[in-house]
């Protein structure tokens, strides 16, 4: 066992015993140049990785924010449409209710006046007609 095997971790010993490790051991200038390149290139690589990570994070946040904005706008539009439909349905049902009440009152009045006229005919007395339900054909006969 060599002396350097006592001071270095097993991975370093394995690398130094490989062909590349033996070549770098024989050529110290190439080893120093490679070491300097790796040391100097770590800063730009780190900046690039930070840029990539922040870009990915900002893109995800941007997509989430844009999706939230679009969903919020869609929800507000849906709420406005539903409120408009609710107001429209209230208005239509109000108009229909008023029409129903008026028509039912007119039908009840018409049926009541006809039944009263029939009762008077059955009793033998002539029906007294009010101005609202008067038959104007009688007036035409009198004028002739």
Automatic annotation (TrEMBL):
Residues 122-144 are annotated as: Disordered. Keywords: Endoplasmic reticulum, Lipid droplet, Membrane, Transmembrane, Transmembrane helix. The chain crosses the membrane at residues 29-57, 94-111. One of its GO terms (cellular component) is lipid droplet. Its main location: endoplasmic reticulum. The keyword Kinase does not apply. It is found in: Endoplasmic reticulum membrane; Lipid droplet. Residues 122-131 have a biased composition (Polar residues). It is a multi-pass membrane protein. PANTHER family: LIPID DROPLET ASSEMBLY FACTOR 1 (PTHR14275:SF0), PROMETHIN (PTHR14275). Belongs to the LDAF1 family. This is Lipid droplet assembly factor 1. The lineage of its organism: Eukaryota, Metazoa, Chordata, Craniata, Vertebrata.
């Amino acid at each position: 066992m060599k002396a350097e095997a006592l001071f270095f971790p097993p991975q370093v010993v394995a690398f130094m015993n490989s062909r590349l490790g033996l070549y770098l051991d024989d050529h110290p200038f190439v080893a120093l140049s490679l070491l300097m390149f790796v040391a100097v290139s770590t800063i730009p690589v780190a900046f690039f990785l930070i840029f990539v990570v922040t870009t990915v994070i900002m893109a995800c946040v941007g997509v989430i924010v844009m999706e939230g904005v679009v969903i919020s706008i869609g929800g507000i539009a849906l709420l406005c449409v539903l409120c408009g439909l609710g107001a429209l349905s209230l208005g239509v049902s109000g108009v229909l209710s008023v029409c129903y009440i008026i028509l039912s009152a007119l039908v009840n009045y018409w049926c009541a006046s006809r039944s009263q006229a029939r009762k008077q005919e059955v009793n033998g007395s002539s029906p007294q007609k009010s101005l609202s339900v008067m038959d104007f054909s009688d007036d035409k006969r009198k004028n002739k």
